[in-house]
Amino acid sequence: MARTRKTPPKPPAGACPPPVEALKEEVLRRSRDEKVRFISLWFTDLLGYLKSFAITPGELEVAMAEGMGFDGSSIHGFARIDESDMIARADPSTFCLLPREPGTPLVARMFCDILEPGGAPYPGDPRYVLKRAIARAQGRGYTMNVGPEAEYFYFKNAQGTEVLDAAGYFDLTAVDVAHDLRSKTVEVLEAMGIPVEYSHHEVAPSQHEIDLRYADALTMADRLMTYRLMVKEVALDAGCHATFMPKPLFGQNGSGMHVHQSLFKGERNAFYDAKDPMFLSPVARGYVAGLLAHAREIIGVCAQWVNSYKRLVPGYEAPVYICWARRNRSTMIRVPMYKPGKEKATRIEFRAPDPACNPYLAFAVMLHAGLEGIEKGYALPEPVERDIYELSEPDRKRLGIESLPGSLSEAVGEMEKSDLVRQALGDHIFEKFIENKRIEWNEYRTQVHGYELKKYLSVL
Q1: Burial class (CB in 10 A: 0-12, 13-18, 19+), 247
Q2: Which of 258, 260, 285, 334 is catalytic?
Q3: What integer is the mean pLDDT of 193-210?
Q4: Among 45, 91, 125, 149, which one carries the catalytic annotation?
């Protein structure tokens, strides 16, 4: 993939964003100057799958002002066939040039907000769900910043799990195919104006991680969707397959998405308190308490697939116990150590989500849970600075440490009872999401798996 020109840098946190009309004019100018041939309009369905259709530059002004109509009846979680007219209105702040091969037409992409025909936000749009959560935080003066660590695997192809390397965590090896793919992906992302902080090999064979520099929640959700596609596109160009499936290899670590997050008030980090022994403000403590209290309810959104719960088992670095700590990486929430002079980096790390979730919905339920803890003054339990995997069940019970649900079915059952998750997602998505997950679980539980045949066929 050829490197493309970067988009203009985003203004610093707290700065006034350019007026919408000025952004639209800039997009139109760039489209003309860059000789863009097509604009791909992107949005996501209920489950977080990217959807798109292309328009020509002649339609761009209308796409930003009024939006482009489309049939939503075939988009999962969208309208029924008798109310299928939808409008996708392009967000000018998301204009970006896509990578291209020499000699091929230049294509830009823009994320869209989905509207009803009358212009009202469509309640089935995951991006709108996150915008509503952000509005709740803004009502208290907060901006949510997010920095995810999304892991993934490279395999020879999509038909199997033959790995490309046998390296381990942070291993420095001779340049191989997987190392080259990761490097090319970083180049592509940065060429698209998506800053990257780190990239490295993860614990399992052929498992990798690219960490995006933190941004506000909506920008990061858009970037994460772009990141997942670019990882796959770069691999596909090389004749390989990349997957964000949470647990593709038996006996190896699965892929998680540790979500670093904080709340800011203007330029000030609302999570930082110089007088606290752990440098955590009451706001931060309430936020962590909210995540802990609602973890069992929100995990079905943050780990939304049957396969997600093959990762969330003890022994593979996945956090299954609902507790927090500073240094202990066996806990569900970790507070990275404060470095003097780095007040803005004070944050918490929620380690339970996986990279195959719908980030718009996942960030939304995290934010609602954290705000609930702040607004209602939830008490934060004591941190657990011991290896929880080595504790006995009675010891965990004595310490009041609960576990996350052990299956998608259990997670959906917890979610179904949750007023907070219903509030966060809205009735439409809440009900459609649960309906979809019940279908997925029933399809899974009626299958006969290889494990059962191997264990029982010859002896029963």
Answers
A1: buried
A2: 258
A3: 91
A4: 149
The pLDDT of residue 397 is 87
Alpha-carbon dihedral sign for residues 407, 412, 414, 420: positive
Structure tokens at 6: 């970067």
Verify that 95 and 158 share a domain, yes or no.
no
CATH code of the domain covering residue 383: 3.30.590.10
Choose the catalytic residue: 5, 268, 329, 398. 329
Mark whether 202 is an active-site residue: yes
Taking only the tens place, the pLDDT of each residue in 373-393 is: 999 999 999 998 888 878 888
Residues 449-458: contacts with CB within 8 Å, 24+ apart?
Answer: none
Please confirm, yes or no, whether 273 is among the known catalytic residues: no
The catalytic position among 45, 91, 125, 151 is: 151
Cβ(26)–Cβ(77) under 8 Å?
no
pTM of the predicted model as reported, rounded to 2 decimal places: 0.92
For 225, the token pair is 């969707």
Cβ within 8 Å of residue 22, ≥6 positions away = none
Measured CA to CA, the distance from residue 74 to residue 77 in angstroms comes to 9
As a whole number, mean pLDDT of residues 397-416 equals: 94
End-to-end CA separation in angstroms for the chain: 55
Please report which residue ranges of 192-252 form alpha helices under DSSP H. Answer: 217-237
Q: Which entry of 209, 297, 372, 414 is annotated as an active-site residue?
A: 209
- Catalytic site residue from 125, 273, 349, 354: 349
Catalytic annotation present for 351:
yes
402: annotated active-site residue: no
- Can 151 be counted among the known catalytic residues? yes
Is 317 annotated in the active site?
no
| Domain span including residue 185 | 131-451
| 4 assigned to some structural domain | no
Residue 174 has pLDDT above 80, yes or no: no
Residues 234 and 165 in one domain: yes
Which candidate in 109, 182, 334, 351 is catalytic?
351
Average of per-residue pLDDT across 217-222: 98
209 is catalytic: yes
The average pLDDT across 42-65 equals: 96
User: What is the C-alpha to C-alpha distance for residues 303 and 34, in angstroms, rounded to an integer?
Assistant: 40
DSSP 122: P
